[in-house]
Specification:
heterodimer, A: mainly alpha, 2 helices, B: mainly alpha, Ferritin, elongated
Chain lengths: 85, 191
Amino acid sequence: MHDYRSMVEMLKEIQALEFGVYELALFLDTHPGDRRALEDHNRLVSRLNQLRKAFEDRYGPLRLDSESPYPYRYINDPWPWEIQY
Amino acid sequence: MWFYEKKLQYPANVRRCDLAMAKFLFAQYGGPDSELSAAVRYLTQRYTMPIPQAKALLTDIGTEEMAHWEIIGTLIYKLTEDATPEQLREAGLGDHFAQHDKALYPHDAAGVPWTAAYIQATGDPITDLHENMAAEQKARTTYEHLISLTDDDGVIATLSFLREREVVHFQRFGEALMLVKEHYEHKHIFY
């Protein structure tokens, strides 16, 4: 149970970072020449990639193109709609 | 192509089983201004957008709408998870149970199935972007109605996030509209 809460807390951090990335990406779609927004975007992407990798090493793949230990761990519960956030 | 990421865009918690609210939330799962309509609308219109900014924006907002569709599905799933057939019937979801049990199905709050007639793709980027701006406002209004129909702070937090996204998407579509207009106003004559 303790591990479940840590998993959820880490997932929320990923959600927060990924939200920042997505929001900046939509902004950049219509403002491709905004250097500051692009720098913010790239900085968050780098942090997100690190955090996602750390999460996946501990709790299993978030995507089917992530490496998995044996047996294939991507399928494991909980799926997103089953999590108590 | 797309890859699925095994996480929600934003947390979705419910405090208790609330079948009436689940029924109302179907408005955003399979109604006219639902997240499903939004996703199909933008991902369909993007092919005939004339400038890179608009092609990118419709692709990315359309993709985000799929994530919102999943969030609404999660709220409905959680709100109905512990219900008995009798409770579903009392809440007006007896018709739904008869055909779908507790499976999700894209229909609106009154049980009317989703249809592509809810969306348009005219091939005119100015017209389509205006439709999208209107669609974002209609979805924002629907979220305000839904928020006023519940006192579950978990549901309210998630719906407030989704409402805010409608506001941001409206702004981005407005910017794309301005850029498309500038594109057409430029005469493209080089002599």
